[in-house]
From TrEMBL, chain A:
Keywords: FAD, Flavoprotein. Transmembrane segments: none annotated. Gene3D superfamilies: 3.30.465.10, CO dehydrogenase flavoprotein, C-terminal domain (3.30.390.50), Uridine Diphospho-n-acetylenolpyruvylglucosamine Reductase, domain 2 (3.30.43.10). This is Xanthine dehydrogenase family protein subunit M. SUPFAM superfamilies: CO dehydrogenase flavoprotein C-terminal domain-like, FAD-binding/transporter-associated domain-like. The lineage of its organism: Bacteria, Pseudomonadati, Bacteroidota, Cytophagia, Cytophagales. PROSITE patterns: FAD_PCMH. Pfam families: CO_deh_flav_C, FAD_binding_5. Signal peptide: none annotated. The keyword Flavoprotein applies. It comes from Hymenobacter aranciens. Residues 1-223 form the FAD-binding PCMH-type domain.
From TrEMBL, chain B:
Keywords: Molybdenum, Oxidoreductase. InterPro entries: Ald_Oxase/Xan_DH_a/b, Ald_Oxase/Xan_DH_a/b_sf, Ald_Oxase/xanthine_DH-like, AldOxase/xan_DH_MoCoBD1, AldOxase/xan_DH_MoCoBD2, AldOxase/xan_DH_Mopterin-bd_sf. This is Xanthine dehydrogenase family protein molybdopterin-binding subunit. The keyword Oxidoreductase applies. Residues 31-148 form the Aldehyde oxidase/xanthine dehydrogenase a/b hammerhead domain. The lineage of its organism: Bacteria, Pseudomonadati, Bacteroidota, Cytophagia, Cytophagales. Pfam families: Ald_Xan_dh_C (PF01315), MoCoBD_1 (PF02738), MoCoBD_2 (PF20256).
From TrEMBL, chain C:
This is (2Fe-2S)-binding protein. Keywords: Iron, Metal-binding, Oxidoreductase. Residues 56-132 form the 2Fe-2S ferredoxin-type domain. The keyword Oxidoreductase applies. It comes from Hymenobacter aranciens. Pfam families: Fer2, Fer2_2. The lineage of its organism: Bacteria, Pseudomonadati, Bacteroidota, Cytophagia, Cytophagales.
Length: 326, 778, 210
């Protein structure tokens, strides 16, 4: 790991100011994503700006929904009564992720910004378009069994966001509050936060240089209260998803009034499926409906040889999740 | 001595041997005081070495630009193939290689510009702190001109060949005419089984601290399963006399086979320590662990099984294809178990290897027997279903009353009892004979079982006992405790052998200054070291009896030595056990504060042929033995398979093992559970993926390589059959470290078959494969 | 790399920590942009100067003992414990937060010390396996691990025990299934899982203060 200087930022202004002066510097909160990349020499920031003293804290009810400070830790948020009651899928997504130790460390903002687990990205010995634009993507002809089938491009097939939280956030219309170097805040729906790889897989989200995630706000809704997060992985715990589904249904008299669906582990970004929601909305809460929704969700899938199973797996995962909340 | 004493004769009622004693090293391990090889922090001037490894899998180093790294703060030295001090001998020379007792790989890196595998060391950086060494290594600019790469035996460019020998076994084994017998068999089964590359991944990565205490005096703290082997091999490579090298390993964070050999990083640490004149610590990173200490090779096995309509085996033809390194004909010997497990009149086994750009694979918990049993025990399950027989029934029908591979009777075999007891504990008689019949919620429930067996490897150890007059003793053997309980069980054996309470025994191991015994591996340590300790105690008694019979104040004065026995520390007349005295009395009168004894303990056929054994070479195959010696067992498993999500969870487990005398049922139970979990990992999740074009691993870390976690494992039931084996060694002990994994992945696969009606023949059985199988018609 | 100071003496940098940081970041910024590292070296940047720039004062309470340290920002909490303070009970199994062998408690929370920079813990209280027992008396969890044979090689054990203590304190030891899930961040290659669960259940039901 390169040496670097370290600064505790006392304010957002101070933090963004440092990046303005030194765009290669990096923010750090929990550090769980940053440290492993620095250890592998994938990132070599000359300076780290510690955000833990910033006031991006608290879990509170607002008129827009439940507002969660970006510095809050995954374990705190996952076990918070308001989250458990209003957004079971969000709580489950947090508590099914990583390990208890990592959940005590990782911040919400950091989780949203975690990087892909694609083995080619994680090892600087390999070419990788995301890491070194133009160097190629050996995963396409190589090991891609746990890479994406939706939203991929010829340049990159990574599940750029490998985690769970943002999948649930995408399903339930969460909005990020961002603050830029001028101290100006803007609100970006999480479904518009991530970018598809296209020809520029190195660009993963809409954050401007130095822009901070301040908070995430999730609007309360009936379908959010009746929600779940189902995660399928190669071992029972402490593993990334092969496929996951965050779903919420508002069912009355057997008819689905509103539905929310997002998939994890299969998309180049957390995969909100409005196609599936369209099938579900107004339809009877039956297995036939769920199967049709699952088919709609995976319609655009572009699988390769070794991740073809994910089409079926994601469909089955989604159907199972819908059955659980119906 | 012509006839060695045996524990069962001198200790007809064992004291602490066989008791579930808690580990004597438990305190050190739960307080963090146990010192592992990278934790000798107090060495004066200790500095850190970091490996820089090759990005590409095949090529030649064109240049290594060290300029930036050299100027980085704290850097003491940088070694590449251009300035690495020369070794006296390297395995790169076939003549030199014969000098090594422990170097599995016919290649030592950094001797030339050649790169043969991704992750091969290309440079070593030494700096004053770990952080600085790591950073400097990252500043090295290594240019390699790549050459055509072969990634595995499956690579279209790979060429399969049959070697003359693999690990001392012939490349082709024929017993009877298996081809003809198979062709004429009324029931024929042909199936191919494939296995992913597996890594041992002990929790402690390879670690070496090398300290030159003088120009010709080297102490190495190394995470090794065999201090003596490491000592001898290092001495040969460095051009030192054996005694000039001391190797210490008091605690080791797991090995499972990968620490049984001397790998390049250990030698490199010693070399650079000498060059910089400071003690050097070199610890592999977890990604480096995947390319530094071997692995279980990826492989395919085709079994052709011929049987009668009643289910009697007629023939087995076993072909194995696998990947080996560019220099070695290495394969784990899968045909050992398939040739001996059942009464089988005709057998043919053939190995097919292909050189590829990977390092040499190496022994991995039950090498050969583990994958061999997966194939055979899956096929036996198929045969049972095809003929409408219970899986246990088909195995009893083909029960081998003697070893079919050599015709020898077994030294002991309690496999029938294992089947019976395992079935009882599991509730096997409740089993639905039909597949796919039981559901629990959304999951399908299935039961499976498989046979386990592991051979007794002929070997020899050495131990020393120093008994103090005050009733305490120090007992020593240069073995390693891999977590198997060696510290504890040897304390128990010494306590009983000396008639002392275990808290009065200090057992020491893991140092070449102690009596040299062989490596701890191949399930040999318990049998070999326990008999060495026991016999060393007998040696103490013999010496003390001589003192007593010459002492006119002793009640034993002028007795014949052979007329005196020792019972619980009392020297007594055999014919008059009321007459005698305690050993302390004899020693006090003789003015002896302590007395020492030592002995060689033999395990396996060299024990059985004692006349030949005195001069036997334990490394040589000894065919003087009259018995075939194996531990046997059976594993039973319940799985829940989610047919839509493709997940398989083990929900119930029973293992019953017949392993001779069990020295400590508490540690033995742990060891068997651990082996089974290792097998469950291989069955369900463990695979190291190598890029098919670049021959570089794509998941070389513990997030991508899935080792079972706590949530994967149910409560497990382990029992042992009380077994008396008079032929195996003086203690009647068989090893259990490896039998615990043999058959486990078959038990899981058989349970998956029972649950789903689908036979999965490719390990690991990950959700993608389960889903694919579920799409197939039953 | 860290230097330990006598905790009873006033630390020169302590009260000026933030200012020092600012100053140091400016200096290092000049010197240590990756491409500039080489230039810095080429311009024969004196190593002693570099050292003075790089190290940051840090005050930690480890196992009840105060430490005044100066550390490089890149030193992880794990490497500080193992390499500098010789508290080698905390293990390095993977160095990437993927095994749990490095688990310690920071202000009472279990964390992976390998994925955390030491400088980020200024003023915090660290408990390692060495700090769990009081004198020769083992902590109930340590006793239970010995009794139930909750380990074999012992390398993952300190992390397992620190995690197990946290598991009980957090209230996540309610059932066997819950224990298994909340202990899944600690990999044991020897496979002592069933015994670890038994040890935790024993402590949970034993009534002793955990």
């Amino acid at each position: 790991m390169n040496d670097f200087s370290y600064t505790q930022a006392a304010s957002a202004k101070e933090a963004t100011g440092i990046i303005k002066e030194k765009p290669q510097a990096a923010y750090i909160a929990g550090g769980t994503t940053l440290l492993d990349m620095m250890k592998a020499n994938l990132l070599e920031p000359p300076q780290l700006v510690d955000l833990n003293q910033l006031p991006f804290k608290g879990i509170e009810q607002t008129s827009d929904g439940l507002r969660i400070g970006a510095i809050e830790r995954m374990s705190t948020v996952g076990e918070h009564p308001l989250v458990v009651q209003q957004f079971p899928a969000v709580s489950q997504a947090l508590l099914l992720a990583a390990s208890p130790q990592l959940r005590n460390m990782a911040s919400i903002g950091g989780n949203i910004l975690q990087r892909t687990r694609c083995g080619y990205f994680r090892d600087a010995a390999f070419p990788c378009n995301k890491r070194v634009p133009g160097s190629g993507c050996p995963a396409i002809a190589g090991d891609h069994h746990n890479l994406a089938i939706l939203g991929v491009s010829d340049s990159c097939i990574a599940t750029a966001y490998p985690g769970d939280l943002s999948v649930a956030l995408a399903a339930f219309d969460a909005v990020l509050t961002l603050e830029n170097q001028k101290g100006k805040q803007r609100r970006v729906p999480i479904t518009e936060f991530y970018l598809l790889p296209g020809k520029t897989p190195q660009r993963e989200n809409v954050l401007e240089s130095g822009e901070l995630i301040v908070a995430v706000t999730i609007p309360g809704a009936a379908h959010a209260r009746r929600s779940t997060y189902l995660k399928v992985r190669e071992r029972s715990s402490y593993a990334y998803a092969l496929a996951s589904a965050a779903v919420g249904l508002d069912v009355q008299n057997g008819t689905i009034r509103t539905a929310r669906v997002a998939l994890g582990g299969v998309g180049a970004q957390p995969w909100r499926s409005r196609e599936a929601e369209k099938v579900l909305t107004g339809a009877p809460a039956t297995e036939a409906t769920f199967l049709a929704a699952a088919a709609a969700a995976l319609q655009g899938a572009q699988p390769l040889e070794h991740n073809r199973f994910k089409v079926e797996l994601a469909q089955n995962t989604l159907v199972r999740a819908l059955q659980q909340v119906a | 001595m012509d006839i060695e004493p045996t524990f069962s004769k001198t200790n007809p009622t064992a004291g602490v041997v066989g008791q579930p004693m808690s580990r004597v090293d438990g305190w050190a391990k739960v307080t963090g005081r146990a010192t592992y090889s990278a934790e000798y922090s107090g060495l004066p001037g200790l500095v850190h070495a970091v490996l820089k490894t090759s990005d590409v899998a095949h090529g030649r180093v064109q240049s290594i630009d060290v300029s930036a790294a050299q100027r980085a703060p704290g850097v003491l030295a940088i070694f590449t193939h251009q300035n690495l001090p020369k070794l006296a001998k390297t395995p790169n020379s076939p003549d030199d290689r014969k000098a090594f007792v422990s170097s599995p790989m016919g290649f030592f890196p950094m001797e030339s510009d050649q790169i043969f595998y991704a992750g091969q060391p290309v440079a070593v950086v030494v700096a004053d702190t770990l952080e600085r060494a790591q950073y400097a290594a990252s500043l090295l600019k290594v240019s390699i001109v790549p050459e055509a790469t072969i990634s595995s035996y499956l690579d279209p460019k790979a060429q399969l060949y049959t070697p003359k020998t693999v690990k001392g076994m012939p490349g082709v084994t024929k017993r009877g005419d298996a081809q003809e017998a198979f062709a004429g068999a009324p029931v024929q089964l042909t199936a191919t089984y494939t296995h992913a590359t597996i890594h041992h991944n002990p929790m402690e990565p390879g670690a070496t601290t090398a300290h030159w205490e003088g120009p010709n005096r080297l102490t190495v703290y190394d995470s090794t399963q065999g201090v003596s082997e490491t000592q001898k091999t290092l001495a040969a490579m460095l051009g030192l006399a054996t005694e000039q090298v001391r190797v210490v390993c008091k605690f080791i964070g797991g090995g499972f086979g990968c620490k049984a050999w001397v790998w390049p990083h250990t030698t490199l640490a010693a070399l650079v320590a000498k060059a910089v004149g400071r003690p050097v610590k070199l610890v592999l990173t977890r990604p480096q662990q995947f390319t530094s200490m071997g692995h279980r090779e990826e492989q395919a096995q085709t079994l052709r099984l011929g049987a009668t309509r009643e289910g009697k085996l007629l023939a087995l033809i076993h072909d194995k294809s696998s990947t080996t390194s560019p220099w070695d004909d290495y394969a784990e010997t899968n045909t050992r178990i398939t040739n001996m497990l059942y009464a089988l009149p005709a057998f043919e086994g053939t190995y097919h290897l292909a050189h590829a750009n990977v390092m040499t694979s190496t022994a991995t918990r039950a090498p050969g027997d583990m994958p061999g049993a997966f194939a055979l025990e899956s096929s036996m399950d198929d045969l049972a279903y095809q003929l409408g027989l219970d899986p246990i029934q088909i195995r009893l029908l083909n029960y081998a009353d003697k070893d079919p591979s050599n015709g020898h009777p077994w030294s002991s075999k309690s496999l029938k009892q294992c089947y019976q007891r395992g079935a009882e504990l599991f509730g096997w008689n409740q089993r639905n004979p039909k597949n796919g019949q039981t559901r629990a919620g959304k999951t399908l429930v299935g039961w499976g079982m498989a046979t386990a067996s592991y051979p007794v490897h002929n070997s020899q150890g050495n131990a020393r006992v120093r008994l103090y007059a005050d009733g305490h003793a120090v007992v020593q053997a240069g073995a390693t405790d891999l977590g198997t309980g060696t510290y504890t069980v040897m304390t128990q054996v010494a306590a009983d052998s000396l008639g002392l309470p275990p808290e009065n025994i200090r057992f020491e191991l893991g140092d070449t200054d102690l009596p040299s015994t062989q490596w701890s591996g191949g399930s040999t340590a318990a049998g070999r070291v326990s008999s060495s300790v026991y016999l060393a105690a007998q040696d103490v008694w013999q010496r003390l009896i001589k003192v007593a019979v010459q002492d006119n104040k002793s009640p034993l004065y002028r007795a014949k030595i052979e007329d005196v026995m020792v019972v619980k520390g009392q020297l007594l007349f055999r014919t008059d056990p009321d007459t005698g005295e305690a050993f302390g009395e004899v020693m006090k009168r003789a003015g002896m504060s302590d007395i020492e004894g030592s002995a060689l303990g033999r395990y396996g056929s060299s024990y059985e042929a004692p006349r030949a054994a005195a001069n036997a070479d334990p490394n040589k195959k000894d065919h003087a033995s009259e018995h075939s010696m194996h531990a046997f067992g059976a594993h039973f498993c319940e799985v829940h398979v989610d047919p839509e999500l493709g997940t398989v969870r083990v929900t119930k487990w029973v293992s019953v093992i017949a392993g001779g005398r069990i020295l400590n049922p508490k540690t033995a139970r742990s060891q068997v559970m651990g082996g089974s979990i290792f097998g469950i990992g291989a069955a369900l999740m463990e695979t190291t993926e190598r890029d098919p074009h670049l021959a570089r691993y794509t998941n070389a870390d513990l997030a991508g390589y899935h080792i079972p976690v706590n949530a994967d494992i149910p409560d497990m039931t382990v029992e042992f059959i009380d077994e008396h084996d008079p032929y195996v060694n003086a203690m009647g002990v068989k090893g259990i470290g490896e039998i615990s994994i043999v058959g486990t992945s078959a038990a899981v696969a058989n349970a998956v078959f029972h649950a789903t009606g689908r036979r999965l023949r490719s390990l690991p059985m990950t959700p993608d494969k389960v889903l694919a199988a579920m799409r197939e018609p039953v | 790399m860290a230097t330990n100071h006598d905790p009873d003496l006033p630390a020169p940098h302590d009260e000026h920590r933030r200012n020092f940081l600012k100053q140091s970041s400016l200096l290092t910024a000049l010197a240590l942009v990756p491409s500039a590292v080489v230039e810095a070296a080429e311009s024969k940047l004196d190593e002693r100067v570099a050292e003075a720039i790089e190290k940051i004062p840090l005050s930690l309470k480890i196992n009840g003992k105060k430490h005044k340290l100066k550390v490089e920002p890149r030193t992880t909490l794990l490497d500080l414990l193992r390499e500098d303070l010789h508290l080698t009970g905390t293990k390095k199994g993977c160095d990437y937060g993927q095994c749990g062998a490095c688990t310690v408690h920071v202000d009472g929370l279990r964390v992976n010390s390998c994925l955390s920079f030491a400088v980020m813990h200024d003023g915090q209280e660290i408990t390692t396996i060495e700090g769990l027992a009081s004198g020769d008396d083992l902590h109930p969890m340590q006793e239970a691990f010995v009794k139930h044979d909750g380990f074999q090689c012992g390398y993952c054990t300190p992390g397992q025990i620190m995690s197990a203590v946290a598991c009980v304190r957090e209230g996540h030891a309610g059932s066997e299934a819950e224990i298994r899930e909340y202990m899944s961040g600690n990999i044991c290659r020897c496979g002592a899982y069933a015994n670890i669960v038994a040890a935790i259940q024993d402590v949970k039901s034993g009534g002793k203060k955990v």
